[in-house]
Specification:
The complex is a heterodimer of chains A (366) and B (320). By secondary structure, chain A is an alpha+beta fold. Chain A folds into two domains: 231 residues, 3-Layer(aba) Sandwich (Rossmann fold), CATH 3.40.50; 125 residues, Beta Barrel (OB fold (Dihydrolipoamide Acetyltransferase, E2P)). Chain A is built from nine helices and 22 strands. Chain A has a six-stranded mixed sheet with strand order 6-7-8-3-9-10, with helices on both faces. Chain A has a six-stranded antiparallel sheet with strand order 13-12-11-14-21-22. Helices cover 73% and strands 0% of the residues of chain B. In chain B, helix 3 packs across helix 15, helix 5 packs parallel to helix 10 and helix 14 runs antiparallel to helix 15. The two termini of chain B are 50 Å apart. The relative contact order of chain B is 0.11. At the A-B interface, strand 6 and helix 2 of A face helix 11 and helix 12 of B.
């Protein structure tokens, strides 16, 4: 069993740089957890502390039943895949993959068996005699994973493993990693700044910002129910639109006032939730995919929005429609054949069931 | 409008002179040859010509002030069959080169590893480390000559007047007067002078090894010692090969240190090829013999250089 428990984990560099500020996180056995966040949010530092490559300033790290705060990396029974692969340039692929086992004085036949098995999983059997310098980026990535797999560790740590690959290869390797995790079941902590990677790979996502955890949840929860403005803006591509708004009482219901001309009715099931914010300055959040071409609708949660198209970005399957609401640029996502030309008026449908209301004083979604 | 190839063809056909001559014979990139021309002229005048002259002298009975005659390989036969000092010179040179290069590699590696770990006064110490290398050899060797001198030797004074050495009643060492001590002393001074070059070059090599390789090795389970043997040393091999190559060449051809400290003495026990060749050729006026001795090492050096360069090329076939 290899759960990982981080309790009140702190990391300080020098006198005043706080990289990680008291985070708590439980990662279950065989779970695939992605730590995601912008540069400098503390995700890689957290991973390196789990690996034992960074000392911890405070708190506790537990791997399995052991507290590993002072255990050196080699005794933590973990394997790590580095961003730049960190393959030993003077050793062959076989040498790289077997290095850890050779250091542990594993039997030669056993080393052979494990390397061959990992090479088969990763489809790198014919590369075993080559040196890393003779491999492509994708092949190096596989070797780096192979080196981790042969060790059969309790925990796999991935530090932005795909960020050095080109876009096409990244998508391909993402699928590979998912397949490998399904085949080689083990606990995985995966650091990335790419929310798409996190969404597609992880059982649970941990969004970090400024050294703290903003939210932990499944990809679905992260996308549909972000708890903070940061998570709402970070998860999803293209990013969620944020528009300054006010909440108005309209008879029995509430309306979101986006500009003098534009107001959208709040779904009745949210009226009680939003009632305390009437009269306050709030932020209206809606994803581009919930601002679509006009669709005939009967339910009250879908409402029409008149806009003037400013920019069109055809993506093939969809066309992104950019327009302005009271000085804020807003993006919608439309079926390509339904868009108006630039400069012309267009009616969009707003799915108010998928809206988010953010209190700017706390940046929390209410 | 004329195409580029027509214009180029026009230039080729119409412009006479060096450039078009070179272009015809050496291909289109003639500028490179023109840029290296001054160096080629210098090498021809200052290296190739004296080398050719030395080869010619070595096969003659040249003696300063007397007419010269071609005598074939007689000089070489003479130094092999009849010159007892020459065998001593070979022994001295091998001892001198092997001991000092080995010590420089080991100590250089040790010091570079220590310097890499130092965080305070890093720049000062790295700069200070270079002092023996940048100071003029003749000057610093004179300093060592004073330190090792039997009358003024600081070392003897320390050994005889400071505790705990006073307990052992140590005698006056003739550092430059006893054969073994004299050879040891010149080797020591050579190490002292050459060590900074090793330290700085190895340090640069160490710093070019990415940290993440050590981190990967940490996670793979390597101890500090295993990281040194399995990561540091193999990745330093190209750098080590190059500095061993350079150092061996310079050490084998060393002249200053021996000439200032011992002049080859006592009883020729510290003569190297360079000093012995100078003694015979210039001081004794036997230019032919001196040239033959100085050339003796050449074929061995060529083989050594080819061997080391091949090794470097093979081991540098990876990227960090």
């Amino acid at each position: 069993m290899a759960e990982i428990r981080l309790q009140d984990l702190w990391k300080r560099y020098g006198a005043d740089v706080m990289a990680v500020r008291g985070i708590n996180l439980d990662i279950e056995h065989n779970e695939f957890v992605a730590l995601v966040g912008p540069s400098g949010c503390g995700k890689t530092t957290t991973l390196r502390m789990i690996a034992g490559l960074e000392d911890i300033t405070g708190g506790q790290i537990q791997v399995g039943d052991r507290v590993v705060n002072d255990v050196p990396p080699r005794d933590r029974d973990i394997a790590m895949v580095f961003q730049n692969y960190a393959l030993y340039p003077h050793m062959s692929v076989y040498g790289n993959m077997s290095f850890g086992l050779r250091l542990r004085k594993t039997d030669k036949a056993e080393i052979d068996r494990r390397v061959m098995s990992a090479a088969e999983i990763l489809n790198i059997g014919e590369l075993l005699e080559r040196r890393p310098g003779q491999l492509s980026g994708g092949q190096r990535q596989r070797v780096a994973m192979g080196r981790a797999i042969v060790r059969d560790p309790q925990v796999f740590l991935f530090d932005e493993p795909l960020s050095n690959l080109d876009a096409k290869l990244r998508v391909q390797m993402r699928t590979e990693i998912k397949k490998i995790h399904q085949r080689v079941k083990t606990t995985v902590v995966y650091v990335t700044h790419d929310q798409v990677e996190a969404m597609t790979l992880a059982d649970r996502i941990v969004v970090m910002n400024h050294g703290v955890i903003e939210q932990v949840g499944s990809p679905d929860e992260m996308y549909n129910n972000p708890q903070t403005r940061f998570v709402a803006s970070f998860i999803g591509s293209p990013a969620m639109n944020f528009i300054d708004c006010g909440i108005e009482q309209t008879g029995a219901g509430l309306a979101i006032r986006l500009s003098d001309q534009v107001a959208l009715g709040v779904p009745t099931d949210r009226t009680d939730r939003y009632a305390p914010y009437v009269g306050k300055d709030m932020i209206f959040g809606i994803r581009p995919e919930h601002l679509t071409e006009h669709r005939p609708h009967a339910e009250e949660t879908t409402q029409d929005l008149q806009i003037q198209v400013e920019v069109l970005e055809p993506m093939g399957m969809d066309t992104m429609v950019f327009f302005d609401i009271d000085g804020t640029e807003v993006c919608g996502r439309s079926e390509p054949r339904s868009v108006s030309d630039v400069g012309e008026a267009m009616t969009l449908s707003v799915n108010m069931d998928r809206m988010h209301l953010i209190d700017p004083s706390t940046d929390m979604v209410v | 409008m004329a195409t580029a190839s027509e214009v180029e063809g026009g230039v080729r056909n119409t412009s006479p002179g060096v450039r078009s001559f070179l272009r015809r014979n050496l291909g289109p990139d003639t500028d490179g040859y023109l840029f290296v021309l001054p160096s080629i002229v210098m090498v021809l005048c200052l290296i190739v010509y004296p080398f050719g002259l030395a080869v010619y002298f070595s096969m003659s009975d040249a003696f300063i002030g007397e007419p010269m005659e071609f005598i074939g390989l007689e000089n070489f036969v003479y130094i092999f069959e009849e010159d007892d000092i020459f065998l001593l010179v070979i022994r001295n040179t091998i001892l001198f080169a092997v001991i000092s290069v080995v010590c420089k590699v080991v100590l250089g590696l040790l010091c570079a590893l220590l310097l890499q770990r130092i965080t305070h006064l890093k720049r000062f110490l790295r700069g200070a480390m270079l002092l023996p290398f940048v100071a003029p050899t003749a000057l610093t060797t004179l300093g060592w000559w004073l330190i090792l001198d039997p009358t003024y030797s600081h070392i003897n004074w320390i050994l005889q007047n400071t505790f705990p050495f006073t307990l052992f009643e140590i005698r006056d060492y003739q550092f430059l007067g006893e054969p073994t001590l004299a050879l040891g002393s010149v080797i020591f001074v050579n190490i002292w002078r050459g060590l900074p070059f090793f330290i700085i070059t190895i340090l640069a090599g160490l710093m070019s090894i990415p940290d993440h390789l050590y981190e990967a090795a940490d996670i793979d389970g390597a101890s500090t010692w295993q990281k040194f043997w399995k990561i540091t040393l193999p990745l330093l091999k190209p750098v080590l090969a190059i500095i061993i190559l350079f150092s061996t060449i310079f050490t084998l051809a060393d002249f200053n240190i021996v000439y200032v400290l011992t002049r080859g003495g006592p009883m020729n026990e510290t003569h190297l090829f360079a000093t012995y060749s100078f003694t015979l050729g210039i001081l004794n006026h036997e230019v032919g013999l001196g040239a033959a001795i100085s050339l003796f090492l050449f074929p061995m050096m060529v083989l050594f250089v080819i061997f080391l360069l091949r090794m470097v090329r093979r081991d540098s076939a990876y990227e960090l």
